[in-house]
Amino acid sequence: MKKLLLSLTALIFAGIAVCQFNVTFNVDMTNATGFDPLSHEVYLSGDFAGWVQPGSDPTLKFADAGSSIYTLILPIDSGRIQYKFFFCAIGTPSWDNGEWTGTDNRHRIITADATLDNVWGDRPGVVTFNVDMNYADPFDPVTDEVYMAGTLLSDWNQPGTISDYKMAPSTGDALVYTLDLPLSPGEHLYKYFLVISGAPSWDNGEWAGEPNRSVTVDTTMIVDDLWGSPAGIPSHFENVSFSIFPNPVNNVMTIENLKNADRIEISNICGEIVKSLVVKSSSVTVNLSDLKSGMYFVIVYDNGKIESTKFLKN
Known about the structure:
With 314 residues, the chain is mostly beta strands. It has 1 helix and 21 strands.
């Protein structure tokens, strides 16, 4: 039985739809400018329905559920879908009144019956996730793949079962893995996992159990992570008073707003001090050209107070 279930999962996410699920689409029209519930109808369009013109297919028409919430239940094939909401005058099909113009659609991966609660106009932001694997141990890039899991485009699916969550080596550093995901506004939980020799598993996460990573999306953004943190990084590594730039850095980094700092150290992810310098002004530059690529920490000592933040060396 287990072998059969794994085979079905592999078929589904190889692009062969073998299942349909009931998906409830809800959309809150409270903030829909120009929408009149007495003269307009709400429609759904998406790639799963051939992007038909809103208003032309009655099966894609929403029902008024009250309190400005409109709802529609559809059977959807398993896999990744794109969609967007529209309204049009009763009996008049039109593309004119979508949530926004352009091709940045809503995305969702369907793996089971689901209820998708949406707010009109909440435009997805493309989030680029980067995770530095330079100090992940054990990790073999020849046999191991890097996956994400979380409340991203679906709900916590087993790593290795959905190819949309597979990360790829970046062009700048083969051990920094990257993935772009179009995520709806709000908080998303996630974590990174290894899939070893193609075998889906929950066993090879950054750490066992919680806490999970969290990102709050409101626009297109870049998230730079280090495999295994923040679980292993003390709280004083966050919300520092000084600033560093650029980050990532190629050769020279500037550290500003040092105030009364008297010493700065640069350490690698193993805690080994690779540079140390005395501070004589509120701004210093550090030559890092001799350091290998990877994640490092700036540690600032200020009258007994210690602050630190991480940076990526290209």
